Amino acid sequence: VQLVQSGAELRNPGASVKVSCKASGYTFTRYYIDWVRQAPGQGLEWMGRIDPEDGGPDYVQKFQSRVTFTSDTSTNTVYVELSSLRSEDTAVYYCAADEYGLGSTLRQKYEYWGQGTQVTVSS
User: Fold this and answer.
1) Could you tell me if residue 76 is left (phi over 0), alpha (psi between -120 and 50 degrees) or otherwise beta?
2) Which end of the chain is more exposed for a tag (fewer CB within 10 A), N or C?
3) Is-contact 24 76, C-beta < 8 A?
């Protein structure tokens, strides 16, 4: 099983960023895909999850106005797009396979992880 994420991104404040996570080695619809981020010196922060089967997202309220999760079953890829970026959004963003869709800030609660994507917001 692999979750392969897109490369590092640098954005100005106020811009948007879109990160991809391509799944392979398992039936794409078996796991929810969660998005979790880790800012410098901070713990993991759960952003929400998407059900790849029907594309139904579930967002943490903090991010709800600025984040969009999408999935593409033709390419086994999920995406997170975050808009109105600010410096506090600088973090490593991870996708993770979540068997029950419950979400967590504990790394061991997830079956598989992407390698992480560094997003830096700076002018």
Assistant:
1) left
2) C
3) yes
First to last CA, the chain: 37
- Tokens 């929810």 belong to 32
Nearest to 81 by CA among 50, 105, 109: 50
At CB < 8 A and 24+ separation, what contacts does 55-60 make?
A: 58/101, 58/103
Number of H-type helices and E-type strands within the chain = 0, 11
**How far apart, in whole angstroms, are the C-alpha atoms of residue 52 and residue 35?**
13
pLDDT value, residue 53: 87
- Low-confidence stretches of the chain (pLDDT < 50) are none
Q: How many CB atoms lie within 10 A of CB 95?
A: 31
Give the integer Cα–Cα distance in Å for 100 and 86. 31
For residues 117 and 91, give the distance between their C-alpha atoms in angstroms, rounded to a whole number.
Answer: 8
